[in-house]
Amino acid sequence: MRDLTVSSPSMGTSIPVRIILPEGWDKKRQATYPVLYMLHGGDDDYTSWTRETDLEELARKSNILIVMPDGGRAGYYSDWHAGTSRWETFHTTELVRLMEKEYQAGPARAIMGLSMGGFGALNYAAHHQGMFRYVAAMSSYVDLNDPLVRLTLGLGSDRDGIDINQVWGDPVGNFDVWQAHNPSAMPGAFRGTQVHLSAGNGTPGPLDQGRPLDALLVGAVAESGLPKSIRKFASALRSEGVRATTHLYRPGTHSWPYWQRELHSIWPTVMKSLR
Question: What is the rounded average pLDDT of the residues 48-69?
Answer without folding.
Answer: 97
